[in-house]
Amino acid sequence: MIWLATFICCLGLIGAQVPFNHYVNNQRVIGGNDALPNTWKWQVSLQLDSYNEGLFSHICGGSIVDAFYIMTAAHCILSQDASQYRVVVGEYNLYEYDGSEQFITVEKIHVHPKWTGNLAIGNDIALLRLAQPVYDNGFIAIGNLPRPGEMLPHDFTCFITGWGIMDYEASSITPDILQESPIRVVEHSVCSQPEWWGSIALRSMLCAGGDGVVSGCQGDSGGPLNCFTDDEWRIHGVVSYGPSGRCNQFSKPTVFTRVSSFQDWLYSVIEGA
């Protein structure tokens, strides 16, 4: 989902069954490893029922930012029909029912008003209002956000998490278990240099990676960049885009929407509900 030339990648099909529709046909964060269970409690799987057949596909990640709200990328919104989406919170293994999951339908979609569909212009952020609130079953948590306007220093280590493909050149390799990997921030003055992302790396974006080893990839879009700041894990970024072709290219880091640039909008939607 995050590559400039690629906007749809359905990673697994989940069949609708009662009481839990959690059977998946197999199809990571590149350079990642299996996360420990019950670690990134705000991570969610955003899933789409493209044909209204009760069959949901994982399309993107997301983060719990309020009992009623999920934050994700605007480019993950492939349909304006909220009834076609659901989120799975407390998820760990996409292809098994672990007993920790909550399956919740989406009631309303809020895309940032300045999102144009052009990743290079930015504003790639959206909020999904849930039909019912998440509840604390020991496997979920509301994610903390950074300070408004906060920018991380060069080489600061964060963690990227998701169920995206593990090798772009072998795109059938997708994980069942949530993946994580440390990834280093590339400050704006570096990421905006011509040999990196140049002028399309905006200050409202956050770059991380670019070492040719670790990166996000298709299916990680909308998921969090998790950084330990001010004595808490905080969601500093939303996975937005990366290079077309191979995901983990040198000097082409994964680009995130910088959450600290959108605090006013986020709170206006959540508090205005």
Short structural description:
With 273 residues, the chain is mainly beta.
Topology (elements, then pairings):
Elements: E1 13-15, E2 23-25, E3 33-34, E4 43-48, E5 56-66, E6 69-72, E7 85-89, E8 102-111, E9 126-130, E10 157-162, E11 179-186, H1 188-191, E12 205-208, E13 224-229, E14 232-241, E15 254-258, H2 263-271
Antiparallel strand pairs: 1-2, 1-5, 3-11, 4-5, 4-7, 5-6, 6-9, 7-8, 8-9, 10-11, 10-13, 11-12, 12-15, 13-14, 14-15
Q: Major sheet: order of its strands? A: 4-5-6-9-8-7
**What is the residue-averaged pLDDT?**
88
Spatial shape: globular
Number of strands: 15
Q: Low-confidence parts lasting 5 or more residues at pLDDT below 50?
A: 3-28
User: Which CATH architecture of one domain?
Assistant: Beta Barrel
**Sheet of most strands:** 6 strands, antiparallel, barrel
CATH fold descriptor of one domain: Thrombin, subunit H
Total count of helical runs of at least 4 residues: 2
Output the CATH homologous superfamily of one domain: Trypsin-like serine proteases
Instruction: Decide which structural class fits the backbone.
Output: mainly beta
Could you estimate the helical fraction of the residues in percent?
A: under 10%
- Our Rg estimate from Cα atoms comes to 17 Å
Helix and strand element order: EEEEEEEEEEEHEEEEH
Distance between the termini: 29 Å
Proportion of beta-strand residues? 25-35%
Report the CATH C-level class of one domain. Mainly Beta
Descriptive notes:
The N terminus is likely disordered. With 273 residues, this protein is mostly beta strands. A hairpin with a 7-residue loop joins strand 4 and strand 5. The chain is globular and about 45 Å long. The chain contains two helices and 15 strands.
